[in-house]
Write a structure and sequence with these properties.
Removes the formyl group from the N-terminal Met of newly synthesized proteins. Requires at least a dipeptide for an efficient rate of reaction. N-terminal L-methionine is a prerequisite for activity but the enzyme has broad specificity at other positions. Keywords: Hydrolase, Iron, Metal-binding, Protein biosynthesis. It comes from Ancylobacter koreensis. Belongs to the polypeptide deformylase family. By secondary structure, the protein is of the alpha+beta class. The protein has one domain: Peptide deformylase (Peptide Deformylase, Alpha-Beta Complex). Helices cover about 30% and strands about 30% of the residues. It has a 5-stranded antiparallel sheet. A two-stranded antiparallel ribbon has the order 4-5. About 5% of the residues have low confidence.
């Protein structure tokens, strides 16, 4: 396992539509292991493969409490555990809306309120190549939708006003130019 460098705005790869995974094999499982390690190191609760420069439809999510892991009597539900979703697709979404203050490892230290369906049903392949479905609500629903957006070249800032989005893009473009100029 290794920590991979994160792709940061304004990198154009963040706008790519990721390719479906054809077969879950050792290569894909190694990518997932690296993604979890990278996500935890950042630290974050979700990561899409494109955020580490891999344009494939793979996401990792862990919205469970990290400090409670492994404690006796931990009744963490399945959806609160670390989960890798390969070729995830939203097959149903509630009409109810929830608002979360979202952030993104590819847009460091920027947060904004985003409206999304309060619950979703997602179909995906697991690490054994088996088709699964999960019903997600709350933070898990928000996180899964955020990461699936990445697979489609959509960033959470696309869900906020154009004015705010333009300011964020301008700020990160300037930061990238300054880093390049300074040789960082």
């Amino acid at each position: 396992m290794s920590i991979r460098p994160l792709v940061i705005l304004p990198d154009s790869r963040l706008r790519l539509i990721s390719d479906p995974v054809v077969r879950v094999d050792a290569r894909v499982r190694a990518i997932v292991e690296d993604m979890f390690e990278t996500m935890y190191d950042a630290p974050g609760i979700g990561l899409a493969a494109i955020q580490v420069g891999i344009p494939e439809r793979i996401i990792t999510v862990d919205v469970g409490p990290r400090e409670a892991e492994g404690k006796e009597g931990d009744e963490a539900s399945e959806e609160k555990r670390p989960i890798a979703l390969i070729n995830p697709e939203i097959v149903a979404a509630s009409d109810d809306i929830s608002v979360y203050s979202e952030g993104c490892l590819s847009i460091p230290e920027y947060y904004a309120d985003v409206e999304r369906p309060a619950s979703v049903r997602v179909r995906y392949m697991d690490l054994n190549g088996e088709t699964q479905e999960i019903d997600a609500d709350g933070l898990l629903a928000t996180c899964v939708q955020h990461e699936i957006d990445h697979l489609n070249g959509v960033l959470f800032i696309d869900h906020i006003s154009k004015l705010k989005r333009d300011r964020v893009v301008k700020k990160f473009t300037k930061l990238a130019r300054d880093k390049e100029r300074d040789g960082v």
